[in-house]
Amino acid sequence: MYTLCSTPEELMRSRYEAFVKEDWNYLQETSVHQKKEEFNDISSIQWLKLDVIDANENIVEFKAYYKEKGQVNVLHEKSNFVKVDGLWKYLDGELFKSIIQRNELCPCGSGKKFKKCCA
Question: How do residues 71-95 score in pLDDT, each as one tens digit?
Fold first, then answer.
């Protein structure tokens, strides 16, 4: 059983950690529809950073930065959560086409601008 999260934001953060640790069982347990087989093609991703943009009643908008095949990208999603038997679970999400701006700090943590680092 997974850790009891009191808000959708807590659950979203714990799910991000599960992606980092490749804990596909946890991701399946904390989702209404997702199955662990769906995560097989993302095990080559190196997760770098999570930014929560907004969190309210049952919606969390975030940007998760990752590196795949030497390229740094961003996953920008507005996630919907529901309570099932008293536990928060991920329901679904709306993806946005976002890019890392050249003058943003690089998500790799170097402290340099993206254009001077991983771009």
Answer: 999 999 999 999 999 999 999 999 9
As a CATH number, domain 8-116 is 3.10.450.50
Measure CA 64 to chain center. 5
Mean pLDDT computed over every residue of the chain: 91
d(CA 92, CA 89): 9
Confidence of residue 49 (pLDDT cuts 50, 70, 90): very high
Q: How many CA atoms lie within 13 A of 60 on its CB side?
A: 23
User: Maximum CA pair distance of the chain?
Assistant: 48
Domain ranges in the chain? 8-116
Does residue 75 contact residue 63 with C-beta atoms inside 8 Å? Answer: yes
- DSSP lists the bridge partners of residue 49 as 65
